[in-house]
Amino acid sequence: MNSEYLLTLNDLNNQSPEYIETLFALSNGHLGIRTSSVVKGKTTHGNPGTFINGFYDTHPIVYGEWAYGYAKNHQTIVKLPDIRSLIIEIDGEKSNETDWLVEQTDFQLNMKTGMLEERYEIETLQGKKFTLSLCSFLSYSHSEISIFQYTIEALNFSGEMMITKNIAFQESKANDEGTIDPRVASSKSKLGIKQLNNEWLEVRTEFSGQAILISQLMETTDGANEIGCQSVSKRVFVRENQAVILTNYVVLSKPLTTDNCHVIETEKNKLTEVRNSLKFDQLVEEQVQHFSEFWQASDIEITGDPILQKGIRFNVFHLYQNAGRDGLTNFAAKGLTGEGYEGHYFWDTEMYILPFFIYTQPKIAKQLLTYRVSILPKAQERAKELAQESGALFAWRTINGEEASAYYPAGTAQVHINADIAYAFQLYERVTGDHQFIAESGAEVIFETARFWLNYGSWIGAEFCINGVTGPDEYTALVNNNYYTNKMAQNNLSYAVTLAQRLNSVKEEEWSAWQEAAEGMKLPYDHEQQLIKQDDTFFEKAKWPFAETPKENYPLLLHYHPMIIYKHQVCKQADALLAEMLFPQDYSMEQIQRDYQFYEDVTTHDSSLSRSIFSILASRTKQLDKAYSYFMDTALMDLTDLQGNAKDGIHAANMGGSWLSIIYGFAGLTSAGQTIQIENHLPKEIEALAFKLTIHGTPVKVQMDQQELNVTLLESNELSIKQVTKNKVIIVIH
Ligand code: BGC
Fold first, then answer.
1. Tens-place pLDDT, residues 131-152
2. Which residues act catalytically here (predicted)?
3. Residues 3-62+72-267, CATH architecture
4. Is 265 a catalytic residue?
């Protein structure tokens, strides 16, 4: 077994239970389980929990001072109890009421198969010793099913054991420790628990009108099954040195948005059938096959640095695990690994995560985009609420499509999300060639977002301006003409014009107004310094006093009032540079170099979305040492707990960013029109790099080392390759 696919405790920077729970978390896009300890004693540590994508509760946001149009309700992903732990009873001693000696002797996540293997050596108060091994995984063929196989072996006794699997509902611990971190969940939900019959439990949220169904089945080697909901128990007889195997399947349904008993009954019956037909060996086989196909399409091979190799696989693995796949859910900022950011979906998906899926897993990319199509009606309502005659404004952060950002300067005002979404549809179309999806579903999103720009922006003199908005840099709020926003809106409008002409579905009068706005878009520039201006007034502010700011005062957002931050020239993350990264054909190398130097000096990287962009641009401007150093921070961010808060969940956008740093940075991938260009910028620390892309359904293999670049089409159809130089290749889409 290749150890570069195995995650063990030795790979981690700290051993705190909460951190381990996040890093070893399992997910399949529908379910996510934090991997807390399996035998919990009287004194439990950590923050165990299970999440269901899109299962959230809501409650009113209470404002000290309210204003018209503020977001009305919080949406918070529901944290369900841990579903992996066992209660073991021997001679009247219960594992959850005493503190037995529990030593973890093995703990490894096999990223090649998505299976987690653990082993514990346990000793009761009376000195009875046994081992407990557990194999856990979440099915990808039946996403509602989680599988746990426990193997118990008595070491110095024979006798009875009572094994109970109990799903114990308890309160969330988020923000309970006295620290107020705005990046963590801000509310707790009260759940209504109703036993429907002996086999099924209904768990209903208090306000969001959602319910899920839970059931479980316990199977032992003797062939007898126990079926239950909240709790199943099994009495087993263990003989010294003989293994007893218990297989437990827990079923957690998709969120149902109804209390109609017929709908619930139908779902229950469907899942009962699935549950009763499960076979462990078959599930294992399917899992191995599924992940083998995943790695086949999405692996990145790095020669010469095993730690980095594992770090990259770890990131790609979590990206794959945590994406919603049903067209109704998306990719939360922390995936399904923790409560950070309340399970909300942000622009992170479109700008940092989707490229990985578009280029290597296009079917999942389509599902993530379909989610945006599904919430378009909410975005249209929101635009109306903001006094826009027509068009759509997508929520800055949301689960159900409604705006959930209680702090509008760094939330709703980030209207660039509209153009980010449009950009992702455009990239999807270019790379997959799926024109049908765009015509049938995507185009309406593009037109409605274009309408928003035309309504919200204004012609001021000869320039089309977008005023009173916040760009990606959340340390600069409510500005006029944020460069990134305007550039992206311009692209959104132009793409809308292209689609309107191609599909002939919008009146010329309307699309020509979009065209004019795109052409007249203000893109702030300082001619004297020859620098792109982040916004109209960025250069009129005083520089942040970096030299006088102690290290412990970062991230600034936890130490300074927003007013103090906003009045300074300081960036939380890449902003104007992100625009240059996305549209390289529009900027000279000298321009990018100048801007890079300037913005690097004023950027704190307090957001995990920052470093990858700096790495990519450093690669493209041939500052390879810098590119590598930023890249290493992104590649190993959660494995080293660089941001110090991985306990609240993975930094999913950064994981996508590390993929971007390799593909857009080291492999210099850029795309425009009908071409995709690849250029070798491999830093000296990496001997060789290999990965695959899927372009217009065709697998493309890219290999590069310190000497040359090779691109091969695994099956040739719509693509051809032009080798421009030894280190530059253009893929042409016919
Ligand atoms: C970043 C945003 C990001 C959000 C969720 C914030 O810290 O500034 O750009 O969308 O985190 O990841």
1. 999 999 999 999 999 999 999 9
2. 474 (proton donor)
3. Distorted Sandwich (2.70)
4. no
